[in-house]
Amino acid sequence: MCWWIDLDNTLHDASRYILPEIDRSMTHYVAQTLQVDSELASTVRHDYWIRYGATLLGLVKHHDVDAQDFLDRTHVLPDLQRQVVPNPRMRGLLQQLPGHRILLTNAPLQYARRVMQHLGIAKAFHAVVAIDHMWIHGHLRPKPSPLLWPYLRRQVAARRHVLFEDTLVHLKQVRSRRMHTAWIVPPGAVARGRAGRPAFVDSKVKHFAQARAWAMRLAQTGQPGSRRTLMR
Ligand SMILES: [Mg+2]
């Protein structure tokens, strides 16, 4: 088994400080780079995110922005340690998943390592795949690029692959590749009970910890069973 596990809003709540702070930093970066006011910069940032899945891809494509410079300057997050709440149970729960455990995030590696350290889960993973590792044939191909999954799966010898993720468009992309999917409902999302579960989701839970029973059964039987919703 290979467990691919997202970071932000899957293993911790990034909605209150981290993601708003990154959005602010990206808007500031776009305003400086394009020499526009913050209102137009915010529109451009959002437009590139919608069109390409990441603001960075639009900036590289249309404005020849240096990817590393962008990532470094938009993920400073001076208050990160105070904002990431350690979860003492998380490391043990992760380590009970048998097989390869790989953290998979569209965020930069340095940021991912900082968050993992604050959460106390750095040693629970066999590898970390961050956006730094998603250059394929000279182009950045983060989630949900259709080129990313064939590239990643060639590098891991496992018969079954499972993705834990809060972003539905990422889950939809992998389900068509016969991977199993667990949707960790992000904080604040309006999606209650069975009604809010898309067909490409095998299991839907509010917290990663709740996905453990489903994951363990999948590991033991090789079958996801009836699609599960464990919302409370
Ligand atoms: Mg996420």
Explain what the structure shows.
This protein starts with a strand and ends with a strand. Helix 1 (18-34) packs across helix 2 and helix 2 crosses helix 3. 41% of the residues lie in helices and 13% in strands. It contains ten helices and nine strands. It is of the alpha/beta class. The strands form two sheets. Strands 3-2-1-6-7-8-9 form a seven-stranded parallel beta sheet, with helices on one face. The protein has two domains: 2-11 and 86-229, Rossmann fold, CATH 3.40.50; 18-74, Orthogonal Bundle (DNA polymerase, domain 1), CATH 1.10.150. Strand 6 (161-165), helix 9 and strand 7 (180-184) form a beta-alpha-beta unit. Bound molecules: magnesium ion. Magnesium ion binds next to loops.
Short description:
With 232 residues, this protein is an alpha/beta fold.
Descriptors:
single chain; 232 residues; alpha/beta; DNA polymerase, domain 1; 9 strands; 13% strand
Oligomer: single chain
How far the N terminus sits from the C terminus, by CA atoms, comes to 28 Å
CATH topology of the largest domain: Rossmann fold
Number of strand segments: 9
The helix tally amounts to 10
**Shape descriptor:** globular
- The H/E string reads EHHHHHHEHEEEHEHEEHE
Q: Give the averaged pLDDT, no decimals.
A: 89
Spans of at least 5 consecutive residues whose pLDDT stays below 50 are: none
Map the helices and strands.
Elements: E1 2-5, H1 18-34, H2 38-52, H3 55-63, H4 67-74, H5 80-83, H6 90-95, E2 100-104, H7 109-119, E3 127-129, E4 135-136, E5 139-140, H8 148-153, E6 161-165, H9 168-175, E7 180-184, E8 203-205, H10 212-221, E9 228-229
Parallel strand pairs: 1-2, 1-6, 2-3, 6-7, 7-8, 8-9
Antiparallel strand pairs: 4-5
Helix pairs in contact: 1-2, 2-3
The structure holds magnesium ion.
Residues 6, 8-10, 166-167 line the site of magnesium ion.
